[in-house]
Amino acid sequence: MGLLSWIVMGLLVGVVAKFIMPGSDPGGFIITILLGIGGAFVGGYIASFLGIGSFTGFNLGSFLIATGGAILILILYRAARR
């Protein structure tokens, strides 16, 4: 996947993760993209480790894996902030 694809996927995943877990988290557009890209890495690593799949490109499976990773990052961030 190219850099532009990572950014687009990161934006979409970050927006979906913030929609699923609304809250008063700091950060705007850039943080949302970084959240999604980080979610893709975390979700892909965990899914590969568990043998479920991996982040292979712009498809539904990769989108769900990345969204799960982004939600996990949000949960960990909120737990650490408390």
Keywords:
0% strand; mainly alpha; 82 residues
What does this structure look like?
InterPro entries: Transgly_assoc (IPR007341). Belongs to the UPF0410 family. Its main location: membrane. The chain crosses the membrane at residues 6-21, 28-52, 58-77. This protein is mostly helical. The protein has one domain (3-19, 27-81). Helices cover 76% and strands 0% of the residues. Helix 1 packs across helix 2, helix 1 packs across helix 3 and helix 2 (29-50) packs across helix 3 (60-81). The radius of gyration is 12 Å and the shape is globular. The mean pLDDT is 79.
What's the number of domains? 1
Computed Rg: 12 Å
What percentage of amino acids are in beta strands?
Answer: under 5%
**Helix and strand run:** HHH
Helical content band: over 70%
Pick out the low-confidence regions. none
Provide a compact summary of the structure:
It is found in: Cell membrane. This protein is an all-alpha fold and 82 residues long.
